[in-house]
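Feature request disguised as a bug: please show the residue count (208) next to AMP-binding protein in the output. Example input:
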Amino acid sequence: MTLFELLRARAKTHEGIIVSRSSRRLVSWRKFWSRIERGTARLQGEWGVTSGDTVAYWGLGHQDALMLYIATARCGARLLPLEHPSLQQASEAILRDIPVKILLHDDELRFAQPPAAPVLTNLSSLIATRSYHAPVVVEDVQLPSLITMFRDANGRFRTEEHSLQQLSSMTTTPVTQEFRVGAALFDNDVFAPQVLSTLTAGGTIIFR
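Example output, currently without the count:
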């Protein structure tokens, strides 16, 4: 069973159980999947995201960023997280090398100089209103769905692409049924081994 299938099934069998919580809101499994579907429809129908495109996230460990990632993957697209100051400071060069279709950011952010993206919008707009577009869902777990960046020994940025299948293979049995996201959500030592592991085990992910 793929992660997409698992989440869809949980939305039916665990609909009232809380999958994520923060100071902003509690999200049940039913709402979690519903918002992923809404996000998929908006990405495709309103912002034109298709298979092979890249969507950027600028922020730090936001609750809605997890739903953004899964919605992006359902479009067959890749998410480029810009969570660390070093990546944000180098965003002009990064976005020149990796063109994005849209950049979504944490709601409270205000840019002195907006990033060079064709569309720039706040993350809450992903789920704020219902989209009546019927998305063409890909749900191919072998497609690249996440781009991570790191500096090599010479100080140059390098990229790695991960499919949902690869990330799912890195999940483990969580020690507890809760995981608290302290800062960045998409770091290699956090996202697959902690966040996705908790998600697949039916636990709760806690955000700030």
